[in-house]
Amino acid sequence: MATIARPTDEMPRPNIAKAGLQLPAVKDYEQVDREIMATLRPTKGWFAALTVAIVCLMIGGAAWTYQIHEGLGVAGYNPPVMWGVYIVTFVFWIGIGHAGTLISAILYLFRAGFRTTIYRCAEAMTVFAVMTAGLFPILHLGRPWKFFWLIPYPNWRLLWPQFKSPLVWDVFAISTYLTISTTFLFIGLIPDVATLRDAEKNPIKKQIFSVLSFGWRNSEAEWRHFARAYLFLAAFSTPLVLSVHSVVSFDFAMALVPGWHTTIFAPYFVAGAIFSGMGMVFTIIIPIRKFFKLQHYVTLNHLDAGAKLCLFTSMVVGCAYMVEFFIGWYGAVPVEQEYWWNRVFGQWWWAAWIMLTCNMILPLSLFSQSLRRNPTWLFILSLFINLGMWFERFVIIVPGLSHEYEPWQWSTYVPTFVDYSILIGSFGWFFMWFLLFIRQLPVIAISEVKEIVPPRLRRVHPYPPAPEGEFASDTPGAHA
Amino acid sequence: MIQGMLGAFRELDATVDAIEALKKDRIGEITVYTPTPRHELEHAVHPPVSPVRRFTLAGGLFGAIAGYWIAIWCSEYWPLVVGGKAISTWIPYTVFSFELMVLVGGLSTVAGMFICAGIPRLTMTVGYDGRFSHGEYGVWVQCAPEKLKDAEAILRRCGAVEVHGAQ
Predict the structure, then answer these.
(1) Pairs of CB atoms within 8 A across A/B
(2) Whether the complex's predicted ipTM surpasses the cut of 0.90
(3) Alpha helices in A71-142 (DSSP H)
(4) What is the pLDDT confidence band of residue B167, given thresholds at 50, 70 and 90?
(5) Cα–Cα distance, A269 to A160 (Å, whole number)
(6) Which of A17, A347, A361, B163 is the S-S candidate for A305 at Cβ 3.0 to 4.6 Å?
(7) Planar angle of CA B52, B54, B60, nearest 5 degrees
């Protein structure tokens, strides 16, 4: 007698995302292959988006070329504010990457079912976000071609980096993060690429997919070793994601700048990173599910569960903001107190209030179930979260440097067109890679979706699937 | 020369039945192809635990030690002396140890998976069919020539939609 997978005892309810979540509109494996592979056909909209991304990238590239020629002086640095838009954007993009690893690794370990259909996009987002972030410390260098001096390699000068410097910790943390994230993404893709290989008719593409799939043939032994390796990679990625943004926060916390030298920074940065990453996940996944007609894969339950995570991290971040203010007041250090006042009511009030509004106030709307299940609102909110989280990093970095201990250290900072152009270029770089990815490789993990689709059985399944209409869809009848 | 019989199945429970019957009659060595991992198949095949974990442990330990070693060796080789402070300190160097543990441990896990699963594979092995990555299950039983007919009979009886021999 065959053993048959037993679904959860309690049938899933429409408004509660849970580990036993099923996809009622997805009937069989062939449908999964057909509908997810259909996303690989280019459309006019995709070409238009790619063109915009490349134009943005060219703007950034031109600005960087100009900066290399003219020197860092064109970038708006104004002593003592020598960390500006580039470091702000670096921390922003590193943070964006964190939700990808959270969804793909941490939620995998917790067996959270809602991750299945969104984790591939989130993983790709992580890789491209870290690739983007990695450019900024190089952009920030006066002589960017010397960036490799931070790597400990044998050299004729017999010089080695200062291993007690957080900047060297950063090099190790981020290069490890990029390598492991890319490996995690690529390993997860192998079975799906094998599926593409077997379906492909074009001999050249088939050959490319054959190479990329390493000759994967879906044997039970391969799956067994794959599952074990995937589990360990997830287990490694989980502390890694926590460590990377902690190390990034040490860039600031190890310094004596007012507002930076605080022990709360590591958890505060990690929570903020996951929050901002969830914002970017919504920014990406909501248009994808709409334009590729994948609403029955990324259901409202998935969005609802993601929105709850977003709300939770927003409240953690909000709590961290309040604790920072409290420490400023309770610590009774006049310089710190003046810094906090200056940040919220003084020179940088506008930036701080953008941050507080976007990161603390607007996400409270997610207490409403109807808004959590409203893709349009989630998309709009995600744009505010992206904006708010960029300004969070701005508010951390610039006000601290522009108002240090002595009056001669009080200054201001105004980004120039070079800063803005490179910022735009970073979005172009990120979205160019992402758009290329979604047209070459599946945006939803085919093999993992098949795991949650009931298998075809010869005998009648003792546990019938959920009745039609059990899960609400924002496009009724679109995939009947 | 490899000789065996391949059965293609549309249903999961039929595949499990075939595996159990083939194992019961000790027909030969069984390889199962499935578009997605299923516990039902794993229970039927009852394979040994994957040894990938050993690669992970070895890589992780090596990385952790290498992280401390690089930082300590470089610091001792080119001392940056700050009054009253040790040249090598384990607290900041734990960052390197941790990062290299994750890096080397992760990469050795992947290497372990490749070695254990026998990939990269340059040619498709006998018995594989492209249908097995889409919706069908495959059972390839490698056996002696005199057992081929028994294998075919079992596969057909259990509900294989297609059965053919290969060598």
Answers:
(1) 208
(2) yes
(3) 85-101, 107-109, 119-139
(4) low
(5) 29
(6) A17
(7) 105
Query: Within 13 Å of residue A27, how many CA atoms lie on the same side as its CB?
Result: 6
- pLDDT attached to residue A262: 87
Q: Domain B4-44+123-166 falls in which CATH fold?
A: Alpha-Beta Plaits (3.30.70)
Decide if domain A29-142+162-312+412-452 falls under CATH 1.20.1630. yes
- Residue spans per domain, chain A: 29-142+162-312+412-452
The better pLDDT of the pair B118, B61 is held by B61
Quick one: pLDDT at residue A157?
74
CB–CB contact A451 B36 (8 Å)? yes
Does B12 contact A228 at a Cβ distance shorter than 8 Å? no
Establish if B53 touches chain A: CB-CB under 8 angstroms: yes
Interface check B45 vs A, CB under 8 A? yes
> Can you give the residue ranges of every domain in chain B?
4-44+123-166, 52-117
Cβ atoms A339, A259 nearer than 8 A: yes
To the nearest whole Å, the CA of A437 is away from the closest chain B CA by 22
Which residue bears the tokens 């499935």? B34
Mean pLDDT over B32-39 rounds to 91
What is the amino acid identity at position A447? S
> Is A478 at the interface with chain B, CB within 8 A?
no
> Which residues of chain A from 195 to 214 reach within 8 Å of chain B, CB to CB?
195, 197-199, 214
Phi, psi of B166 (to 5 degrees): -150, 155
**Residues of A in Cβ contact (< 8 Å) with B141:** none
Q: Please, are residues A446 and A67 in contact by the beta-carbon 8 Å criterion?
A: no
For A220, name the nearest residue in chain B, comparing CA atoms only.
B32
Could you tell me how many helices (H) and strands (E) chain B has, helices first?
Answer: 5, 4
CB A53 within 8 A of CB A446: no
Cα first-last separation, chain A: 34
- Given this model, what pLDDT does residue A149 score? 83
Low-confidence ranges of chain A (pLDDT < 70): 1-22, 460-480
Q: Which chain B positions have a beta carbon within 8 Å of A456's beta carbon?
A: 10-12, 135
pLDDT of A22: 66
